[in-house]
Amino acid sequence: MFGRILRRQKLFRSHFRNASLFGKEYKEDHMTNLTPRIINNLGNHKHRIPNHPIEIIKNEIYKYFDQSSTSFAKFEELSPIVTVEQNFDSVLIPKEHVSRDKKDNYYINEELLLRAHTSAHQVELLRKGESSFLCCGDVYRRDTMDRSHYPIFHQMEGPRKLFIRGSEKVENDLKRTLEGLVKHLFGENVEYRWMDEYFPFTHPSFEIEVFYEGDWLEILGCGIMEHRVLVNGKAEDKIGWAFGLGLERLAMRLFDIKDIRLFWKSEVVQEQFQNFTGDFRQFKFVLPERKIEPAKFDLAFWVPEGFHEHDFYDIARNIDVEDAIENVELIDVFTHPKTGKTSHCYRTFYRGALKGLQFKDVEHIDSAIRAALQEQGAGLR
Ligand code: DAH
């Protein structure tokens, strides 16, 4: 079983197989970097589980938009398997843009990937003739390992209210609507601010930040839709706006959930949210106290060619199926002056989201990570 996981995880494959996703076979190629962990969790999304915090926030956003005079169609069952065209080209992400990188995305093959944002569906829905809609779904990104990053999370996209071209009302409408949403979620007295941003698919683009625990936290991106996006969506005679937001971000801030792994602990979610009624703004999540400090392991190795930090996190996540790792820090990068070889040193902190873990509880995970790295051609130091 482990052997299979390690082999499938190999970075440099000499031959490719087929990946089976939702019962369908997909051909693998040089771009494939799905891990068994991700494949096993494909479709294990949270936005449709009753009283899951992600579902609660989703419903609150729906509720807000349901009160408006425009009606918004809702889409939340679109497949997370999308084309490169949908995820990037359709929303004008340049061919060489860093966001297309293999290090940040889960590619099925060179044509398909697991959507990295729900914006992947904008054009497809516009083409179907939708004009104002909310699109919610699970999204997948390769990233760091800490208490606020998980390779699968949830986004909400939309709506785009389409006006006749030339209308000046559109920016006011965007600001008024999204300020209303922020107040609906965080209360009338929320401290928030507008920031200028850049997205390839909107111009101008903005972000809203809310003040949280002494700091400004970005919670939503938005802007006036680029004309080319509307052209791609066969709505070239219109102008409109769009927004996108991460539901975990909102839920963490609103319910005081300090560790993103908790969204995946169904027993806790059940226990704390099951009988959830009343004002969601009054509700606070209670994180059990974990008395034990995290167990720490350092691991240094010579990296194989083309190796990226995110490859280490994927190897670790693939083995750590119970989410015992709280965070990982890359503490040292060093290139040998003579051999030119580069070494990375990672410090892994083990502590469950619900309970402390001791050295003996996690030693086997650390050994398995070492073995997997060796399989990849990494020379342990
Ligand atoms: N897709 C963006 C992201 O994942 C969020 C976003 C920003 C969506 C602006 C939008 C938008 O529709 O207009 O970061």
CATH domain class name of the largest domain = Alpha Beta
Number of domains: 2
Which residues form runs of ≥5 with pLDDT under 50? 1-9
Strand/helix succession: HEEHHEEHEHEEEHEEEHEEHHEHEEHE
Helical coverage, percent range: 25-40%
Structural category is alpha+beta
CATH topology-level name of the largest domain? BirA Bifunctional Protein, domain 2
Beta-strand percentage? 25-35%
Strand segment count: 17
Structure ligands: 3,4-dihydroxyphenylalanine
CATH hierarchy: architecture of the largest domain: 2-Layer Sandwich
Shape: globular
Spatial separation of the terminal alpha carbons: 27 Å
Radius of gyration: 22 Å
Keywords: Aminoacyl-tRNA synthetase, ATP-binding, Ligase, Mitochondrion, Nucleotide-binding, Protein biosynthesis, Transit peptide
Protein name: phenylalanine--tRNA ligase
Subcellular location: Mitochondrion matrix
Domain FDX-ACB: 290-381
Task: Identify the notable features of this structure and list them briefly.
381 residues; alpha+beta; BirA Bifunctional Protein, domain 2; Alpha-Beta Plaits; 2 domains; seven-stranded mixed β-sheet; four-stranded antiparallel β-sheet; binds 3,4-dihydroxyphenylalanine; Fdx_antiC-bd_sf; ATP-binding; EC 6.1.1.20; nucleotide-binding; mitochondrion
